Amino acid sequence: MRRKIVAGNWKMNCDLSEAEHLLAELKRENLSKEVSVIVAPPFTNLHHAFESLKESEIFVTAQNMHQATSGAYTGEVSASMLRSVGINIVILGHSERRAYFGETNALLAEKVDAAITANLTAIFCFGEELEDRKQGRHFDVVKTQLSEGLFHIDPSKWSHIVLAYEPVWAIGTGETATPEQAQEMHQFIRETIATAFSKTIANEVSILYGGSVKPANAAEIFGKPDVDGGLIGGASLNAKDFAAIVNAFGN
Ligand code: PGA
Question: I need a labelling partner for 186 at 20 to 30 A (CA). Which of 47, 154, 163, 226 fits?
Answer without folding.
Answer: 154
